[in-house]
Amino acid sequence: MLRHLPSKVYLSCSSTDLKKSIDGLAIIVQENFKLNPFDNALFVFCNRKREKIKILHWEHNGFWLYYKRLEKGVFKWPSSSSKKTLCISPRELSWLLDGLSLHQNTAHKSVTQRVII
After folding, report:
1. Which of 9, 20, 61, 109 has its CA 20 to 30 A from that of 103?
2. Per-residue model confidence as pLDDT tens digits over 63-77
3. Where in the chain are the domains?
């Protein structure tokens, strides 16, 4: 499992053929997204029907490939736009995996530390 959750998560905005394994997905990351698959990031792919996802992650000395298939329902994947990838937070990824949309209007907003004088 993920020991240290990367701070960067990249979603593929278009559907991906999930018959691809680690090497095929790493090539998509490198050639289509123009990103390094060895970076400390998660690369998330979804099929056309939006009921399966794969997550590619490089850790230390090898790749992890996570796969999830929903028995009912679909992932609320962002619509395909002119962007090839969308950079989201790990929190937004959790929402997506839980069946929620990326934009939660009722979620608590992040608070940054401020100095009180």
Report:
1. 20
2. 999 999 999 999 998
3. 8-97
